[in-house]
Write a structure and sequence with these properties.
It is built from 13 helices and eleven strands. By secondary structure, the chain is of the alpha/beta class. The chain has a single domain (7-120, 224-399), classed as Peroxisomal Thiolase, Chain A, domain 1 (3-Layer(aba) Sandwich), CATH 3.40.47. The strands form two sheets. Strands 3-2-4-7-1-8-11-10-9 form a nine-stranded mixed beta sheet, sandwiched between helices. The longest helix has 17 residues, at 156-172. The mean pLDDT is 94.
């Protein structure tokens, strides 16, 4: 049971990561349509063929009915529509849902997109809620976070991911240099990617460890840089893929697991739900972790990468530090990880940050990665992470 590989990624678009937007502000709906139009052009597919939509919770013009709003705006008539609310796992979740819908025969061409663009200011400023300043995601009356975490300062991603890092190192040893090496190795790849926000800015593990501590033990250079950007992917049938100009990228395995929202309620800190998602994806694809040519691992923090490497089965619990020390994680190394620089080097454009990992996996498999193209590039493993190591998704992509 599972995906047969009969759905393929055949095109994509991705905007250059920008710290400060240098383009005229655009409404998210307009930006979403532009990203999809560019991806369809890349795939050589006409907009009238689109019969499926996957979006995330980033179309601010419409609190509800986002797929219908998109269909109306873009002129699509669709048989399949999905809005995901899985945070950084949304992009990976979109792609496997699109593939599943195609294999079920519901649709033939699905567009998936996420955007994070500067929008023009509204005529009436929205009411300011100071709870959002601290990174709360469930600040409404009655939520567990509002009642038990916000009043005591246990909020936001920095604190929660630091909790994972503290627990991990307390259990397995305090080799912080391994975490720092993840950031510096990925920056090597970012320096080979002209679209990365840190292009041309290499760092060393010493630089990472010398950067300011934000939430013990996490340093500034272990945390993503928010940027403006956007991305879109086109998924279609294997038959339609044969009439496109790109090497098709078959979606052959997927998995997803959600166990909690905040670190406070994690059932087995520091282990993460990605283990179950990875096991399902590898099993469905009929491959082992050792078989893949690259990994594109969601990397909001260095600890996210370290835990994902372990829990996905590339090494055992507590062995991740030695694994990272023993391997070169850059695009030119023996364990290519986040060959576009990852969000730590490329930048995190909201939920489009997670889409960058899917696109880089597809880009490498297609053979379109220019100076950072891998020699072996037939099989990619991609993950997405939402919340605080809570919502986790996994994909296995294979070249056709």
């Amino acid at each position: 049971m599972g995906l047969r590989g009969d759905a393929c990624i055949v095109g994509y678009s991705e905007w250059k990561a920008e710290r400060h937007s240098t383009v005229e502000p655009r409404m998210p709906l307009h930006a979403w349509a532009d990203a999809v139009a560019a991806a369809l052009a890349d795939a050589g597919i006409d907009a009238h063929e689109v019969d499926g939509i996957c979006c995330a919770a980033d179309i601010t013009e419409s609190i509800q009915f986002q797929p219908a709003t998109i269909a109306e705006y873009c002129g699509f008539s669709v048989n399949f529509a999905e809005r995901l609310d899985l945070g950084g796992a949304s992009a990976v979740g979109m792609v496997w849902r699109a593939a599943a819908a195609i294999e079920l025969g519901l649709c033939e061409v699905v567009v998936c997109a996420t955007v994070n663009q500067a929008a023009p200011p509204p005529p009436t400023p929205p009411r300011f809620d100071d709870r959002w300043v601290y990174g709360a995601s469930s600040s409404a009356w009655g939520s567990p976070q509002a009642e038990f975490e916000l009043p005591f300062g246990n909020i936001a991603q920095n604190c929660s991911y630091a909790t994972y890092a503290q627990r991990y190192h307390d259990l397995y040893g305090w080799n912080e240099r391994a975490r720092a090496k993840i950031a510096s190795d990925q920056r090597v790849s970012a320096c080979a990617n002209p679209d990365a926000v840190f292009f041309g800015q290499p760092i060393t593990p010493d630089d990472v460890l010398a950067s300011r501590v934000i939430s013990t033990p996490l340093h500034l250079l272990e945390i993503v840089m928010p940027v403006h950007g956007g991305a879109a992917i086109v998924v279609t049938t294997a038959d339609r893929a044969r009439r496109t100009p790109r090497r098709p990228v078959h979606v052959v395995g997927c998995g997803e697991r959600l166990t909690h929202k905040t670190a406070t309620y994690s059932p087995e800190l520091p282990h993460t739900p990605v283990g179950a998602a990875a096991s399902a994806a590898f099993g469905m694809a009929g491959v082992r972790p050792a078989d893949v040519d690259m990994v594109q691992i969601y990397d909001c923090y260095t600890i996210t990468v370290l835990l994902s490497i372990e829990d996905s089965g590339f090494c055992g619990p507590g062995e991740g530090m030695a694994f990272v020390d023993a391997h070169d994680l850059s695009y030119r190394g023996d364990f290519p990880c986040n060959t576009h620089g990852g969000q730590l080097g490329y930048g995190q454009a909201g939920m489009a940050g997670g889409m960058s990992h899917v696109i880089e996996g597809a880009r490498q498999v297609m053979g379109r990665a220019a100076d950072r193209q891998l020699r072996r590039h037939d099989l990619a493993y991609v993950t997405g992470t939402g919340g605080t190591m809570s919502e986790q998704s996994a994909l296995v992509l294979r070249g056709g």
